[in-house]
UniProtKB/TrEMBL annotation:
Family stated for the protein in its record: Belongs to the peptidase S51 family.
Taxonomic lineage of the native organism: Bacteria, Pseudomonadati, Pseudomonadota, Gammaproteobacteria, Alteromonadales
The protein's name in its UniProt record: Peptidase E
InterPro entries: Class_I_gatase-like (IPR029062), Peptidase_S51 (IPR005320)
Keyword Hydrolase: yes
Native organism: Shewanella ulleungensis
Keywords, alphabetical: Hydrolase, Protease, Serine protease
Gene3D superfamilies per record: 3.40.50.880
Top-level taxonomic group: Bacteria
Pfam (any one): Peptidase_S51
Amino acid sequence: MSINALMLSASRVGDSAYLTHTIELIRPLTQPGQQWLFIPYAGVSVSYDEYLTKVQTALDPLPITISSIHQFADPKQAIQDAAGILVGGGNTFQLLNELYRYDLVHLIRERVQNGMPYVGWSAGSNITGTSIRTTNDMPIVEPPSFTALGILPFQLNPHYTNYQMPGHNGETRAQRLLEFTIVDPLTPVIGIQEGSALWRKGDKLTLIGDQTAYLFHGKQQEVEITANSDLSVFLK
C-alpha cells in the first residue's frame, strides 16, 4: 500500500501555540504548491469559517494552500481534487456522523490507500482506526456506524494520560481501555500522548515525537512503547 498518514495526538503540547509543534511533522507529507483540503466537521462550538482560518494561520509556514470542504458544493469532488487532507479535532462522533452523512468514509479510505497524504489530530486521528470505540469524546450524536477509516488496523486513543485528579473517583483512562480489551481482547489499542504521533508510510508505522505511547491488548495493559519505536508489526 502507498498510505502516507500522520496521526497526531493533539493540536498543542503544553502551552505551545496552536499546531506549532506539528509543522515539522507535517512538512514531509507536503510538496510546494499543493492544494490541501481541511475537514472541520469535528468542530461543534466554532464555525467552519473560523476553524479554517485558525488552521490556515497556524500552518502558514507549510508550502501548501488550504481550503475547507464546506466551501465546496460537491464534497466528494473536493476530496477527489485534493492533494492531501487535514482533519481537525473536536468531537469524534460529530465528525464521523458528518462523514457518513455526506457518504465520504469509503472515498477518503480509498484515496488514502492510493497514496493521498492524510493528517489528523485528536478526533481526526481517532477516525483512522478500525472504529471510534476508544475515543474520549461524549457521544453527542449517533453515527450510522462506529466503523471508521481503517487506515490503521487497530484502535487509537489520542490525548492518552492516566492521570487521576486527587479526590476524583471516576475511572482512569487505563481502566476504561481495560474494559475495551476485556470485551474485545483481539484488537490492540495504542494510546498516544500529546506531543507524539503515529506515522504510517506504506507498510511501516513509527511512533514519532518525544513521548512514550502505551499498548493495551488482551492481558497486556499499559505497556510502555518508547519514542521513535517501529510499530510496523501492528499493521500485519
